[in-house]
Amino acid sequence: MILNLDRWQREAIAAVDSLGEQLTYGELRDFADGTKQLMPSRSLLFLLVENNVGGIAWTIGNICAGNVPLVLNAHLDEGLYKSLYELYQPPFVCVPEKMVEKYPYEIVATSYGYALIKTGNEACPMNNELSHLLPTSGSTGSPKLVRHKYDNIEAAALNISTFFELTEKDRPLMVLPLYYTMGLSMVFSHLYVGATVLITNLSMTDRNFWKFIKEEHATSFTGVPYSYQILNLMRFFRMDLPDLNLLTQGGGRMPKELNLKFAAWCRDNGKKWIATYGQSECTARMAWLPSKWAVEKVGSIGIAVPNGELSLIDMDGNPITTPHTEGEMCYRGKNVTMGYARSREDLLLGDECHGFIRTGDLAYYDEDGCYYIVGRMGRFLKLFGMRVGLDECENIIKSKFSGLECACVGTDEKMLVYLTDENYKNQVKEELVTRLKLVASSFEVRIINEIPKNEAGKTLYAKLQEK
Questions:
Q1: In this structure, what is the dihedral angle of CA atoms 327, 332, 338, 341, given to the nearest 10 degrees?
Q2: In sequence order, what are the beta bridge partners of 87?
Q3: What CATH number is given to the structural domain containing 358?
Q4: Whether 46 contacts 72, CB under 8 Å
Q5: Is the domain of 368 the same as that of 385?
Q6: Same domain (yes/no): 301, 435
Q7: Cα four-point dihedral sign 457, 461, 462, 467
Q8: By the 8 A CB rule, do 443 and 449 touch?
Q9: Are residues 360 and 400 in the same domain?
């Protein structure tokens, strides 16, 4: 069975949520077997999840049963959901029971707080290796999906559990969303070793959040930079959390001073601080910085994960073999996904990447082989750990405000939105905050006379960066 799920005792606890619900390994196996009876084999379904035991059961259960879930935020913007639905036409949708009235279709079954709904759409032919789908940009609801296969799941679980040295005694606290590639990879890697996932959607500012950590004896915490900014403001360093022995970070570049603060605290208190780097296209993680270098090499993404390989190429595609020479970072490994889907028909495609990917990140490595990211070649940012497509944000603005000229650039700290009409300044910012579900400080709107373009009408983004 995938992820070694059949190795663990039936009564062993696979997951616990902050609502008090539990899921044993035996129950998860039984649910996967039962799911085979609910839908025809290899069914495509939209799985709208929250961070709870039911979300884990339906996600892992369907993958084990051979169905192909597109894992989405249960609270995805209605318009974004509709565009995905119309494009991919899933025969089944699974949603939290409390939301079922929004979906006027036949209810097939209910379990673990979720309802499986039959939409009436025809079955969707899919590649036999395809295991699940994730959007490339969960916030903007991009129709471009990442196609994962079963080998990716197994490879990612092995790689991650190896460098984190996970065991069945681990009790990781999961605050990252299930529909977020790093969150889902946490589930894969911990179930692989028979651990107990502690999952919650409680805010870190909620007292019950900290009660859950203490009562369930959480042994590790994984967060994005924004998570650690909150912890820092909450005087985390004064808290008494004796069971917590590992802090891990991913989801984009963390401010150096904050990174160093947590790394030094872990070093001085007998705990591990491990920074990681990855992309959904590589089933979450591609590099990790061993804790022994956490302070000395703060800001580095470290070395390739076990069974993976990092490399650099120059502008002509030639390999770079000398330290401190910048180039595009590439990755090779079994966790590299099959490629993208942009339409229903693409779900039949085979593996287009063959275990190799050009990441689009500019980097260099030092004498110890540790890599440092210096910039991006692609048109996306990671704002508070969520990948946001700049082109998709422009489309959001243009579709909402017809005829409005705009251009989006920025860094992982802030998106800069350039407009030519000051009357829309506040409206555009409010629209992005609402659609992307990010704080207002993530965006800065600037007014200019005109958007710089070349003779072909393409936006000259480099000129905007100079302003």
A1: -10
A2: none
A3: 3.40.50.12780
A4: yes
A5: no
A6: no
A7: positive
A8: no
A9: no
Which tens digit of pLDDT belongs to each residue from 337-391? 999 999 999 999 999 999 999 998 889 999 999 999 987 777 788 888 887 888 8
Distance CA 39, CA 216 (A): 35
User: Quick one: 178 and 266 in the same domain?
Assistant: yes
Place of tokens 């692609």: 378
Of 350, 375, 400, the residue that ends a domain is: 375
Instruction: Dig out the tokens for 206 from the structure.
Output: 């909620």
Q: State whether 240 and 96 are in the same domain.
A: yes
> What are the tens digits of pLDDT across the range 328-352?
999 999 999 999 999 999 999 999 9
142 touches 127 (CB < 8 A): no
Domain count for the chain, please give it: 2
Q: Which residue has the tokens 């601080």?
A: 273
CA 313 remoteness from chain centre: 26
Tokens of 307: 């069974």
Beta bridge partners of 382: 387
Give the single-character DSSP code of 306.
T
Q: Collect all residues with Cβ–Cβ distance below 8 Å to 410 and sequence separation of at least 6.
A: 381, 390, 416
Q: Would you mind telling me the total number of residues written for the chain in this entry? A: 467
Q: What's this model's pTM, rounded to 2 decimal places?
A: 0.85
Q: For residue 353, what are the domain limits?
A: 2-375
Where do runs of H (alpha helix) occur along 338-407?
A: 390-400
Instruction: Please check whether residues 330 and 434 belong to one and the same domain.
Output: no
| Amino acid present at 38 | L
Question: Number of helices and strands (H, E) in the chain?
Answer: 11, 26
Q: Which of 102, 100, 106, 116 is nearest to 46 (CA)?
A: 116
> Within a 13 Å sphere around the CA of 243, how many CA atoms are in the beta-carbon half?
16
Residues 286 and 396 in one domain: no
Residue 368's region, left for phi above 0, alpha for psi from -120 to 50, else beta, is alpha
